C-alpha cells in the first residue's frame, strides 16, 4: 500500500524554513517600471505578515499588495513551506489570488538575499528574481514571461522599499 502524498497542512512547517521568510516581514512601498511607459511608476504598497500573531506559528506568511494603477490588480498571496514529495529543498509554495479573479500557484525560494518566484504553465510561464540590498531595505526585481516555456521576455521591473520592519522574534 502506498503512502498518500502529504498535504502542506499535514506536515508541520520547519522553523528554520519559516525563519528565512523574516526579511520580507513588514511594510514596503513598490514602484513598477514597465517597458510600456503608460504603466511606469505605478506606485503601490505591499505588506507581509504572519497569518497569526506571534512568531509565524501558523506556518503561513500573508502578502497583501495594493497598486494605485487600474491596469495592475490588487492581490493576496499565502506563502508556506512546500511539503510536497517533489519539492526542491528550501522551497515555498506561493498561492496568489488577485482582484481580477486570477488564482495561480507558484514555487518560491528565498536564500542568501535572492528571492525567486516561478511558474511553469502551458501558454504562460513566469519568473521573478529579486535581490535584496546589503541593508535589506530595498529589493530590486526583474519579472519575465514566456508563452512557450523556452523563450523568455522581460515583462517589467519592480523596486520594493521598506517602510517598516516588524520584529517577530
Give an overview in words.
This protein is mainly β and 169 residues long. The chain has a single domain, classed as Lipocalin (Beta Barrel). It is 3% helix and 50% strand. It has 1 helix and 10 strands; from the N terminus they run αββββββββββ. A hairpin with a 7-residue loop joins β3 and β4. About 3% of the residues have low confidence.
Q: In total, how many domains does the architecture comprise?
A: 1
Strand content: over 45%
> According to CATH, what is the class?
Mainly Beta
Average pLDDT number: 85
CATH T-level topology: Lipocalin
Oligomer: single chain
Radius of gyration: 16 Å
Number of strands: 10
Key words describing this protein structure:
globular; 1 helix; ten-stranded antiparallel barrel; 50% strand; Lipocalin; 169 residues; mainly beta
Amino acid at each position: 500500500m502506498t503512502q498518500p502524498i502529504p498535504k502542506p497542512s499535514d506536515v508541520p512547517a520547519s522553523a528554520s524554513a519559516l525563519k528565512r521568510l523574516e526579511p520580507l516581514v513588514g511594510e514596503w512601498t513598490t514602484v513598477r517600471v514597465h517597458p510600456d511607459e503608460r504603466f511606469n511608476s505605478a506606485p503601490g504598497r505591499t505588506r507581509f505578515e504572519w497569518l497569526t500573531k506571534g512568531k509565524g506559528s501558523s506556518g503561513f506568511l500573508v502578502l497583501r499588495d495594493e497598486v494605485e494603477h487600474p491596469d495592475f490588480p490588487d492581490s493576496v498571496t499565502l506563502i508556506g513551506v512546500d511539503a510536497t514529495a517533489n519539492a526542491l529543498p528550501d522551497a515555498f509554495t506561493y498561492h496568489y489570488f488577485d482582484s481580477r479573479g486570477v488564482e495561480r500557484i507558484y514555487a518560491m525560494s528565498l536564500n542568501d538575499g535572492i528571492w525567486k518566484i516561478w511558474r511553469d504553465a502551458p501558454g504562460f510561464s513566469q519568473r521573478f528574481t529579486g535581490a535584496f540590498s546589503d541593508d535589506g531595505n530595498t529589493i530590486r526585481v526583474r519579472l519575465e514571461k514566456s508563452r512557450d516555456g523556452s523563450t523568455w521576455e522581460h515583462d517589467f521591473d519592480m523596486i520594493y522599499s521598506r517602510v517598516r520592519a516588524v520584529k517577530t522574534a
